[in-house]
Amino acid sequence: MSGHSKWHSIRFKKGIVDARRGKLFSKLAKEIIIGARMGGGDPDANPRLRTAIANARAVSMPNDNIARAVKRGTGDVEGSNYEEIVYEAYGPAGVALVIEVLTDNRNRTAGEVRSLLTKRGGSLAGTNAVMFQFERKGQIRIAADKTTEDDLFLIATDAGAENLENEDGAFVVTTSLEGFDAVRSAIEAAGIEADSATLVYVSHNTVPIERSDAKKVLDLVNALEDADDVQRVHANFDIPDEVLAELSED
């Protein structure tokens, strides 16, 4: 598992309880809006919307917020018209980045992403410059106290999951893009509550990062993930566990 994935696990756990809950809700609302706009407002008939709502409920997003986001997506309530954009970029030490955004102003977001990269030793890349290093996958994260590894393994693999890892107090189930909804639905049907279920870009290979570059790389990833329009950042770096542990305490 890459260092970025481990660091994101740390960030995920902190993000549930820290003071940026409002920003987290805003990002989740955008996911719900896009899901409802693309596939309709019925989560039972719209896997993307169902997943977005489940992720929102996992962090205790109020039901009124969820309902309002669905109505904005279906057009029953006026609101911003968001579009999905994926930026490719380079970070310090040659790290490859895939940056997913949802924005109502393409020019504003492009300028902000470019500025964040430039200030922290990165740069935007051309189309397909780094994407070939990644593959689209599904990932489902479940707290280790909600099930056993053996039970989850049987349920997930029977439904077509590709991998199961125990990552810092959570089980992470990886699926193919096509098998994501089937695996997520099987876990849900077994009464196991997921902390998150998302589509991600998984790197084929990782770039080893020296201790001297680790903070620069993580500062850039954190700054991008904190940007209002950025939903997720995927990277291909690998940082030693002991260095990640030191940095996570800062």
Provide a descriptive summary of the structure in words.
With 250 residues, this protein is of the alpha+beta class. The protein has 3 domains: 3-74, Orthogonal Bundle (Arc Repressor Mutant, subunit A); 83-132 and 206-248, YebC, transcriptional regulation domain (Alpha-Beta Plaits), CATH 3.30.70.980; 133-203, 2-Layer Sandwich (Alpha-Beta Plaits), CATH 3.30.70. It is built from 9 helices and 10 strands. The chain has helices at 3-17, 21-39, 47-58, 63-74, 106-119, 149-158, 180-189, 211-226, 241-248, and strands spanning 83-90, 96-103, 123-124, 134-143, 163-167, 170-176, 196-203, 207-208, 230-235, 237-238. A hairpin with a 5-residue loop joins strand 1 (83-90) and strand 2 (96-103). Helix 2 packs antiparallel against helix 3 and helix 6 (149-158) crosses helix 7. The radius of gyration is 18 Å and the shape is globular. The model is unreliable at 12-19 (pLDDT under 50).
